[in-house]
Fold this sequence. Notes:
Order of helices and strands: EHEHEHEH
Low-confidence stretches: none
Strand content: 15-25%
Number of helices: 4
Distance between the termini: 12 Å
Strand order of the largest sheet: 2-1-3-4
Radius of gyration: 12 Å
Largest sheet: 4 strands, parallel
Structural class: alpha/beta
Helix content: 40-55%
Amino acid sequence: MRVLFICTMNIDRSPTAEALVARRQGCEARSAGTDPDARMPISGELIAWADVIAVMEDAHARAVRDRFAAELPGRRLVVLQLPDIYQRGEPALVAILTERIDRLLGLANA
C-alpha cells in the first residue's frame, strides 16, 4: 500500500507521518505540502502514485480535490483532522498519528 501524507508546508506533520508508515512492512509512504513553497510541493505525479491520500485538515482535502480531480479516481482521500500545532517528531504528534494511522491502515486493508 502506498500512502501520501499532505499538510501545508511538508515540514512537521506529514514528514512525521511518512516516517511512521515507512517502518511498516508492506507500506510505502511519501509526504508533500499544499503550499507552492512547501519542502516537497504536491504534484499530480504524487497523487497518481498513492493508493491512499491522508491529509491533515479539511483545507488540504479541498486543495487536493480542486487541483487534482483527474488523478483522484481510484484513490481514497482521508482527513486526519490534525491541526498545525505540533513540531516534527513531537511525542504528542507521534502518539496521535500512530493511532490514526493504525485506524487508517486497518480500514484500508479491510
